[in-house]
Write a structure and sequence with these properties.
Low-confidence stretches: none
Structural class: mainly alpha
Order of helices and strands: HHHHHHHHHH
CATH architecture: Orthogonal Bundle
Strand content: under 5%
CATH class: Mainly Alpha
Length: 174
């Protein structure tokens, strides 16, 4: 029941973001759209930022759980779907007070999946190595910056950007 309610709130948010500015969506808007009480919203989330963290984390978990052990292309397909689904949210976040939050959520998602990828590809010892921490931070920052650059365009071609990222990452990890 709990995750169904949370997911319904996230879906309502994604629907509202199509027609409202990022910073204008309120808890009142969400509870009215979901036909739930404010208490129900606050039972699940402290605020809209926490709801966004939940949404990005849920998408990241789905990407990580639906991939082949060491196949980065599977991760890319997951991210293409994720960023396509959240495209309007991320575009509107660029011009909002919450830009840093969304940027950090994208970066955290990449960081989690990159660690998992390296662990599956190179083994636990490699994933725990200090150089891996640096490499993951570098790649996550680069990936996040490239995605944000793509979002700034009039229309985003996530497939194209992930093809370029795949080529760079797979060339390094082979």
């Amino acid at each position: 029941m709990s995750s169904k309610t949370k997911d319904a709130i996230v879906s309502a948010y994604l629907e509202l973001i199509e027609r409202e500015e990022f910073d204008r969506i309120t808890v009142t808007d969400l509870v009215e759209m979901c036909d739930i009480s404010r208490q129900t919203f606050y039972y699940h989330f402290d605020d809209i930022d926490q709801m966004l963290r939940y949404a990005f984390d849920a998408e990241t978990r789905q990407i990580c759980s639906h991939t082949q052990a060491d196949n980065w292309t599977d991760y890319s397909e997951g991210y293409i779907n994720f960023f396509t689904k959240y495209d309007t949210l991320m575009r509107k976040a660029l011009y909002s007070q919450s830009f840093v939050l969304v940027y950090n959520l994208i970066s955290a998602s990449f960081t989690k999946c990159l660690y998992l990828y390296f662990e599956r590809k190179k083994g636990e010892a490699f994933a725990a190595a200090r150089t891996t921490e640096f490499l993951v931070a570098l790649l996550s920052g680069a990936f996040t910056s490239l995605v944000v650059s793509e979002i700034q365009k009039e229309s985003s071609n996530y497939r194209e950007i992930f093809t370029r990222l795949d080529t760079a990452l797979l060339g390094y990890t082979l």
